[in-house]
């Protein structure tokens, strides 16, 4: 390809733009890349605006070229007069395209060359741009390839050449297919050139096998971006936005400006000299105003800090008085509490405290002892212990047979402790209360805990315990025992005698549930809850409270389904509430749930007629029950085996 017209247009007078539309800048030498980058597409993409040259005298162009050369590190190689001596196309080119060219390293540009030229060289570094393909005999026999742009250099002692292939393939829309080296495509509004063969997964803008296509101005493009309606004699240089409006200007006097501020130098000087002193009438010596000219923050004439009209000085004085009052208040802890300092949450539990021995306790855990122990012990504290605590009603207690807890110990036979905390007749709130998951608000007679003996109290939930039951815990941080007497009344008897303790009218009784709080926990509650929507809610709420009370960060717990063997057969009202409860428990604890009800029903004896009837009615088979409610030893054995399988699966 003969590129003499293109090259002579770059270096002297651009008489014709027959050059190719793109070059692969990444394959040209580092210095020539700077030359390739002086294109309309590159400049506009970097500045987000369109560069335009406004008309003017040749001398104006010379002045502009000299000014831009300093800022852009570009060496002017042609005067404005030389540029204007060319064709109309030359006159419409911007200074970056007509009168300037990047210096090739420290070498001087000597013009264009053809294969038959004889260059004049010396000790100074110089370079030529080859305008034709062929062997340049007098240039060290360098060879210029077809369809290439080449720079031939003399460094004072030897010749060298740097050349890049010119891509002339048509531009097509990109699709997910293969392309050969040099293919040009358009994708997402941009033109791209393939640096190597591509596959369907090489997406332009994502794959490094594609590079943006760099294009030169054509006369039509130059005409299209010329400023319209501006006084060309007013500016030496201007930048317009995408709507062809002036965005930045340099006038003939060298003043830099914008449409809103035509003379930025003067505007800046005015701001620097402006007196921002506050008038005494304002009441301020200093301040910050918002967009509505209201004082958001300031210092008044008396030296007070003002925030939105509020004097912080007086406010801080008030707070200081309150802090002083709090500091002087006596918040002494009773010796019976076991603490000498602590923080109490809204449930009157102590998340952080210091006990009488001076140890730091976090949620009942002796942090001092923990920190003094080895790393293994610290890590173990984060995970539930291997010992197992079984919480529930008579089904957990083992009424009607050998309890599942007893059979589980025999099945595991690994030395771990298994605690049976089943109490016959307990509802889910009563089980959760004993476990420590829920507290109960109590009204204390005469607002006083007696120095010794029983103090009559009235729990907010009158049925939080069964008749003739007791539970240990603390009331107003005093250790003692809560008991429900045969007549239904409740009393609290402190563990250690002392003086009368005045209390609020209502305080929480906190059960002692921490002894087994870190164990692996098995919850089987809900058998004695009402067969109603409120019963479903009770079972879910109290189960959640027990799970939440589990101490370890990595909780180990198991929730088992309600049997409801006495709830009636399939389709009945009681049956439907049992199914609803179990589905809700399953959904709440999908990874910690065993549906023992379905497991027992599937374990029916098909040789026994009643078991077949029970299976048809979707109730626990008679052969596995000791009565209408409780299991027999075989039934509890199936439950124990299911729990063992669960523990082994979990690696607990």
Written overview of the protein:
With 652 residues, the chain is an alpha+beta fold. It folds into five domains: 4-174 and 204-225, no CATH class; 280-327, no CATH class; 335-380, no CATH class; 384-424 and 516-650, SGNH hydrolase (Rossmann fold, 3-Layer(aba) Sandwich), CATH 3.40.50; 438-512. It is 29% helix and 24% strand. It contains 20 helices and 36 strands. The strands form nine sheets. Strands 26-28-31-30-29-33 form a six-stranded antiparallel barrel. α16 runs parallel beside α17 (573-588). The protein is elongated. Residues 1-103 and 216-232 have low confidence and may be disordered.
Which descriptor suits the 3D outline?
elongated
Low-confidence stretches: 1-103, 216-232
The total count of strands amounts to 36
Give the percentage of residues in beta strands: 15-25%
Average pLDDT, to the nearest integer? 78
Distance between the termini: 79 Å
Number of domains: 5
Q: What class would the helix/strand composition place it in?
A: alpha+beta
Radius of gyration: 46 Å
Count, helices: 20
GO molecular function: hydrolase activity, acting on ester bonds
